Automatic annotation (TrEMBL):
Signal peptide: none annotated. It comes from Amycolatopsis pigmentata. Residues 871-905 are annotated as: Disordered. InterPro entries: 6-hairpin_glycosidase_sf, GH-type_carb-bd, GH92_a_mannosidase_put, GH92_N, Glyco_hydro_92, PNGase. Pfam families: Glyco_hydro_92, Glyco_hydro_92N. GO terms for molecular function: hydrolase activity. Keywords: Hydrolase. Residues 380-871 form the Glycosyl hydrolase family domain. This is GH92 family glycosyl hydrolase. The keyword Cytoplasm does not apply. PANTHER family: PEPTIDE N-GLYCANASE PNGASE -RELATED, PUTATIVE-RELATED. Residues 167-351 form the Glycosyl hydrolase family 92 N-terminal domain.
Length: 1021
């Protein structure tokens, strides 16, 4: 609760500053409206070339334990930038002549953006504030230090008690743009993992930035809402789909978009309830159900109207106050989206024109609208409306039911010892975690198929009508809206830990994509969007299975991952790019754009798939994928000490004198060589060995965090993209917490045997990179489907899923004094932290000393009490976590034997060994024998692979070895084999490695037409 004692935004009627300049506000900002203050038309300007201390206000205010000085500050950039302007600060002077300590929080401030600052004054309780001072310290560098200050406030901020859900601010992350992201979110009002979002909109013409906190303010610097909208946006970069707008008004109805101004102080932004009171006197409220929602509009007079946005097939039943419509709106990346149907009913009859309904309110000033949607049909939309919000349902009932659903989830984690801002941050992040993925299915009235969905992945040429979709409607659940390259890192491990039951349901919804369309989307929006690298559902779902999640088609999930990993995709929107040759080369060549990122993400996914295969008893595949998971070593250029791209002939993209790890793009996705140099989260021990040992890894990390990101080396991007600027303004060296490729890097210090350095970095990120919740900020970059939010949740608890695809968490210093996580199995994880500081001095688990910097999933979910001793002093507590590569030797990927071959049926078989599955050999005989002679000394053969062609496939065979070409020894024999897909690579492991100069593959049975094979590969150490 806030009780204001002093306030000035430098407007007419506000207290006037002494000896300080008032001006029109900053001239430019990537996220805010220019030429105005933060909340008004004016702001205080600061400028100086040297140290200064300026009296701004004389006051006389008593100090209590809850007194706080707050303001917003806009440090302006200079050449460099040098960030000198972030060191300016307001402080106070007390009646005894003392003043607030020197400001040390400048590193938390962003240039050319408004930043909120709070300075608690409770330590001076009993004194009186006599002055508010502006200090600008002496800072080296040319020119003046300049910036702006607004909304200076001294207030009593008393601690509040709220339920978890009521700490959430859905506007966090909206103070953003395409130029600079502080989250790039929108205030979605919805139920967890719901079918629809409902949101206020500041720009109805955009499918990307739906709601901007400040940048689209009007000429008086008042925020403007143009509409309330139905939305399904997974990310502004993906764009929205199936939008539908509505907006209340008074006076003469308008058919064009006109906005209404408001103040953020008159806005309530909760997951279960959005409300705003406009300056024109109208109030609007919104509460969500799954496929439906309810609006309540309160007008200042006894008449009003609601304008409905552009939609197809809009029809009215004015006597009932009802309407129906459909929307076909979709962004370029909204692949698989067809038509959504809308049914709405007001609580009274209406009159009106073509785009609005008008109401005479003789019995009051309130109008309620129940509205629902369907992807199947208009009839189904009406069914969804009556099923979820029947006629006569009170607004409060819908709101409270949504609130209960959110509270049940968010309340599973209880926190002690957190500030109000930390509680807002933590629970708002949990909200983002459970907002995505979304359901794409509906409860239908059918007696046999109660859950059905309009498939976004089955191709259908049937046209949609005004009342029914042309998409294929099939039974079962469907999950949509997820970018797995982002979410595999934190959100899916969080679902497995916190909501394993729902996790299984969500996975099942994505496995449906595989069963219907043959693949799981890399980026589901809702179907197959060609975006980002890696088929990361592979490792995400493997991780969930290994942590005990069930309730989904396990074989289907494994098959989908297996297809991703072993079959070249039919188009760019699915599967792994470059796979037709990377499997056989052992690296992804530069002919595949961003090939290094594809390669390293492939290793992460193969690691999870190996563990998945082992758990399912598929031992040959487990051995093969485990070997593939270390092929990152094939991209390591020992000359430069970095991973980089290789040409198809094996040569490197850059020679040592040309290579610059600060250059963005080329082989790297949304990052540079520095960040990819540490992108082996599944095998930190192997990376350390590759670099020269744990000390070498520590040194590499030290240099990484000490090398500034300039944001000025765009490389193949050809220009500065927002990720570069955000990374620069993190001011943590090359570490870019603003984007997902960096998120695991601090924890790699654990593999270097330097846990205290990991703890220091993580604590800095937690305390300064998630700030600004109260003015629509909260993130240092894009908050993608809950991933950046969940990083905070895990790290604040003192946990992190570093090696996704294994049931292990690494440990760090908890942020809060005590947390209790209530698990679905009825057990609790209790985490206590005693002492101050970011460093772990010791840990007890269930009362026993714990010396490992990691803990298993089973240990946690069996119910555990973790008691951390924290310190201001670094320690060496915590032995390194498990790693795929053990010992000090660098990883040694399997490599193919080189040689030459002949077939006994006279077929030319050279294409079997050309390292691409785009070619094939079609044999003359149904049961040929292919003999392979090794060039050079023989090496022990461990695994061989066969890749099917496009025609008949082998069903049984014998692999033999010979020292002389006359006497043959059976090494492996297979029967009743099948290749599920064309051009599939299948591995077969020998029981014991065997080294021979000659090998022979005798096909003893084949089927499906003339026998064809694309590749035969012999893999050795």
């Amino acid at each position: 609760m806030l009780a204001v004692r002093f306030f000035s935004s430098f407007e007419e009627g506000d207290p006037r500053p002494l000896g300080a300049e008032i001006g029109p506000g900053p001239g430019r900002s990537p996220t805010a409206k220019a030429g105005v203050g933060f909340t008004g038309l004016k702001a205080l300007r600061y400028a100086g070339a040297g140290q200064s201390r300026t009296l701004v206000f004389e006051v006389d205010i008593p100090v209590t334990e809850h007194t706080e000085l707050s303001y917003v500050i806009f440090p302006e950039s200079d050449e460099g930038p040098s960030y000198r302007s972030t060191l300016a600060a307001l402080g106070v002077e007390f009646d005894d002549g003392t003043s607030t300590p020197e400001w040390t929080g400048g590193k938390a401030l962003y240039l050319d953006q408004w930043n909120p600052v709070r300075r608690p004054l409770g330590a001076a309780a009993g004194r009186r504030i006599t002055a508010i001072l502006l200090t600008v310290p002496a800072t080296p560098g040319p020119g003046e230090v300049t910036g702006w200050i607004d909304d200076v406030r001294i207030a009593e901020r008393t601690p509040e008690r709220r339920d978890a859900v009521d700490w959430v601010r859905t506007t966090r992350g909206t103070h953003s743009s395409g130029e600079f992201s502080r989250g790039n979110t929108f205030p979605a009002t919805a139920v967890p993992h719901g079918f629809n979002f409902w949101t206020p909109v500041t720009d109805t013409s955009s499918l990307s930035w739906l709601y901007e906190y400040h940048r689209r303010n009007d000429e008086r610097n008042r925020p403007v809402l143009e509409a309330f909208a139905l939305s399904h946006q997974p990310s502004p970069w993906m764009g929205d789909r199936h939008t539908f707008h509505l907006m209340p008004g008074t006076g003469k109805p308008t058919s064009t978009v006109t906005g209404a101004t408001f103040g953020h102080d008159n806005e309530t932004d909760r997951p279960y309830y959005y409300a705003v009171r406009f300056d024109n006197g109208i109030s609007a409220e919104l509460a969500p159900a799954d496929h439906a929602a309810i609006f309540r509009f309160t007008f200042p007079e006894r008449r009003g109207w609601v304008r409905l946005g552009d939609a197809g097939g809009l029809r009215f039943d004015r006597a009932r106050g009802a309407f129906s419509a459909y929307t076909t709106v979709r962004s370029r990346l909204s692949k698989g989206a067809r038509r959504m149907f809308i049914a709405g009913t007001f609580d009274r009859p209406a009159a009106g024109g073509t785009r609005h309904l008008a109401f005479e309110l003789d019995d009051g000033r309130t109008v309620e609208l129940r509205i629902a949607t369907s992807l199947i049909s208009l009839e189904q939309a009406r069914h969804n409306l009556e099923a979820e919000i029947p006629a006569g349902t009170a607004f409060e009932r819908v709101r409270d039911h949504a609130r209960e659903r959110w509270q049940e989830l968010l309340g599973r984690i209880e926190i002690e010892g957190a500030s109000d801002d930390q509680l807002t941050t933590f629970y708002s992040n949990l909200y983002r975690l459970f907002l995505y993925p979304n359901s794409g299915h509906e409860e239908t009235p059918s007696a046999t198929e109660t859950v059905r969905h309009a498939s976004p992945v089955i191709r259908s040429l049937r046209p949609s009508t005004r009342t029914r979709t042309g998409a294929k409607v099939v039974s079962g659940p469907m999950s949509v809206n997820n970018g797995f390259w982002d979410t595999y890192r934190t959100t899916w491990p969080a679902y497995a830990l916190l909501t394993p039951g729902r996790c299984g349901e969500l996975i099942e919804g994505f496995v449906r994509q595989y069963r219907e369309g043959g693949w799981i989307a890399r980026w589901s929006s809702p179907g197959y969007a060609d975006l980002m690298t890696g088929t990361s559902s592979d490792v995400a779902f493997a991780d969930a299975y290994l942590k005990g999640v069930r309730g989904f088609d396990v074989e289907g999930a494994y098959e989908a991952a297996l297809r991703n990993a072993t079959v070249p995709p039919p188009n760019r929107a699915v599967g792994r790019k470059g796979l037709h040759e990377s499997i056989f080369l052992g690296y992804t060549p530069t002919s595949t754009p961003e090939g290094l990122s594809w390669a390293l993400e492939g290793c992460v996914n193969d690691f999870g798939l190996a563990n998945f295969a082992e758990a399912l008893g598929r031992h040959d595949e487990a051995r093969y994928f485990r070997a593939r998971a270390v092929t990152y070593a094939n991209h390591f250029d020992v000359r430069t000490g970095f991973f980089q791209g290789r040409r198809q002939d094996g040569g490197w993209r850059w020679e040592p004198g040309e290579y610059d790890p600060e250059l963005w793009g080329f082989d790297y996705t949304e990052t540079n060589g520095w960040n990819m140099a540490l992108s082996v989260p599944h095998d930190g021990g192997g990376l350390a060995a590759l670099l020269g040992g744990r000390a070498a890894l520590e040194s590499k990390l030290d240099t990484f965090f000490a090398t500034p990101e300039t944001g000025a080396k765009p490389g193949s991007y050809g220009g500065i993209i927002h990720e570069m600027t955000e990374a620069r303004d993190m001011r943590m060296g090359q570490y870019a917490h603003s984007n997902q490729p960096s998120h695991h890097i601090p924890f790699m210090y654990l593999h270097a045997g330097a846990p205290a350095k990991a703890q220091a970095v993580v604590r800095e990120v937690l305390t300064r990179c998630y700030t600004g919740s109260e003015i629509g900020q909260g993130y240092p970059g894009d908050e993608d489907n809950g991933e950046m939010s969940t990083w905070y949740v895990f790290a604040a608890l003192g946990l992190y899923p570093l090696a996704v695809g294994s049931p292990v968490y690494v440990l760090g210093a908890p942020l809060f004094a005590r947390t209790v996580t209530h698990l679905e199995n009825g057990r609790d994880i209790v985490i206590r932290a005693s002492g101050d500081g970011p460093y772990v001095a010791g840990l007890r688990v269930n009362g026993r000393p714990h010396t490992r910097a990691w803990i298993s999933h089973d240990e946690l979910t069996s119910g555990a009490v973790l008691e951390f001793d924290l310190s201001e002093t670094p320690s060496d507590w915590g032995t390194p976590p498990p790693s795929l590569t053990e010992g000090d030797r660098p990883p040694r990927p399997l490599t193919d034997l080189t040689g030459h071959a002949t077939s006994d049926d006279g077929t030319d078989v050279r294409a079997l060994f050309d390292d691409t599955s785009r070619t094939q050999v079609v044999f003359r005989a149904r049961e040929p024998s292919v003999e392979y002679t090794v060039d050079g000394p023989p090496r022990p053969l461990e695994i061989y692979t066969l890749t099917s062609g496009t025609r008949g496939a082998p069903a049984a065979w014998v692999l033999e070895g010979s020292a002389d070409g006359r006497n043959w020894t059976v090494l492996d024999e297979r029967e009743d084999q099948s290749f599920r897909w064309r051009r599939q690579t299948r591995p077969f492991a020998l029981a014991e490695p065997a080294a021979y100069p000659r090998y022979r593959l005798r096909i003893t049975e084949s089927g499906g037409g003339r026998l064809s094979l694309s590749q035969w590969e012999l893999l050795c150490r």
